[in-house]
Amino acid sequence: MNLFERYLTIWVGLCIVGGVLFGHYVPELFSAIAGLEYSHVNIVVAVLIWLMIYPMMVKVDFSSIKDVAKNPKGLILTLIINWLIKPFSMALIGTLFFKYLFVQWLDPQTANEYLAGVILLGVAPCTAMVFVWSQLTKGDANYTLVQVSVNDLIMVLTLKYNTAMIKQHTQFFYV
């Protein structure tokens, strides 16, 4: 691994700290960046995400995607983790934070909404980061594309239903 890859966690931490400091000391810069939108999508963020996944996407051989079906274990594992394990683990983590640790700062309705959001985030990994981590681990770009595409397709087709169901059933997590 090169220097950037080896210390990625540190770089991410420094970017977070830098973003907080810039936001505090130069808020008008972030207001200007936030105003660069098209159809509720921030142009700067969209460009940066595409720059982040571009190296992975140029390695995809779209003609070999059909071969992914020959080894379905990774895809099945991804679906099991994303749709059977992560929602419940995120529900437990969200319950811990929003129903116990932060209970004095949140009204019950807001806590339920945050809890629903945490569960949805659990099943919706950042597509760009999946590509980046696959690239960093020298994973199969074609296989990663199929995994991400299948998971994203499930999210798109079930998002409205999942959101309503999660919001309706967050009372289950009151202990």
What does this structure look like?
The chain has a two-stranded antiparallel sheet. The protein has 175 residues and is an all-alpha fold. It has a domain at 63-173. Helices cover 74% and strands 2% of the residues. It has helices at 3-6, 8-25, 27-34, 43-57, 73-101, 108-123, 127-136, 141-169; strands spanning 37-38, 41-42. The protein contains eight helices and two strands. The longest helix has 29 residues, at 73-101.
Mean pLDDT: 80
Strands in their spatial order, largest beta sheet: 1-2
Give the terminus-to-terminus CA distance: 45 Å
Number of strands: 2
In terms of structural class, how would the helical and strand content be classed? mainly alpha
Count of DSSP helices?
A: 8
The biggest beta sheet reads: 2 strands, antiparallel
Low-confidence stretches: none
Helix content: over 70%
Strand content: under 5%
Blueprint (SSEs and pairs):
Layout: H1 3-6, H2 8-25, H3 27-34, E1 37-38, E2 41-42, H4 43-57, H5 73-101, H6 108-123, H7 127-136, H8 141-169
Antiparallel strand pairs: 1-2
Helix pairs in contact: 2-3, 4-7, 5-6, 5-8, 6-8, 7-8
Key phrases:
two-stranded antiparallel sheet; 8 helices; 175 residues; 2% strand; single chain; 2 strands; globular; mainly alpha
Summarize the structure.
This protein is mainly alpha-helical and 175 residues long. The protein contains 8 helices and 2 strands. It has a domain at 63-173.
